[in-house]
Amino acid sequence: MMPAPVTLIDTARVAYMPPDGVLHGPAIDALMRWNLIALLVCFAAAHLWLIAAVLRRRKAAIPTPQSESQDADRLPKIFRWVLLGALCAMYVLMAITAQRLWAANRFEGPSLEAMQVEVVGQQFQWYFRYPGRDAVFGATQAEFANAAAGNPLGIDARDAQGADDMVSSVLVLPAGREVDLRLRSLDVIHGFFIPGMRLKQNAVPGLLLHVHFTPEVPGTYPILCSQVCGLGHARMEAQLRVVSPPEYEAWMVAHERAHVNRGGQ
Amino acid sequence: MIEGRTRLRLFTTDHRAVGVLYLLLALAAVTVGTFLSLLMRIHRVWPDTALPFFGVLKPEDYLALVTMHGTLMIFFVLTTAPQSGFANLVLPEQIGAREMAFPRINAAAFWLTVVAFLVLLAAFFVPKGAPISGWTSYPPLSAVPAAGPGQGAGMDVWLASIGIFCVASWLSSVNMLATILGERGAGMSWTRLPMTVWAWLVTSILTLLVFSVLLAAVILLFSDRHFGSSFFVPLGDMVNGRIVGRDDGSPLLWLHLFWFFGHPEVYIAVLPGMGLATSLLANFTRRPVPGYRVMAAMLIAIGLLGLVVWGHHMFVSGMNPYAGTAFALTTMAIAVPSTVEVLGWLAMLWGGGLRLKTPMLFTLGFLSFFIAGGLTGPILAQPALDTYLHNTFFVVAHFHLVMAMAGAFSLFAGVYYWFPLLAGRLMNEGLGKLHFWITVVAAYGTFFPMHLAGLAGEPRHYERLTGPVASFSGLLPLERGITYSAMLLASAQLLFLWNIFWSARRGAVAERNPWAATTLEWSPEKRLSRVNRGPYEYGANFGETDFCAQWEAVTKQE
Amino acid sequence: MPATFTRHPAEIERKDTGIGGKPPLDRRPTGGGGDGDNWDNRPQGRRGPRELLSRYRLGILFALAGDLMFFVALVSAFFVRQSAGHFDARENYVSDWHALAVPPILWINTAILILSSVTMEMARRQLFHEIDVMEEWLGLGRPAVKRAAPWMIATVVLGGMFLVGQWIAWEQLIQEGFRYNSPDPSSHFFYLITGTHGIHLLLGILALVGALAALFTLRRVEMRQVVLDCTAWYWHTMGLFWIFLFALLAFFQ
Question: Is residue C137 part of a domain?
Answer without folding.
Answer: yes
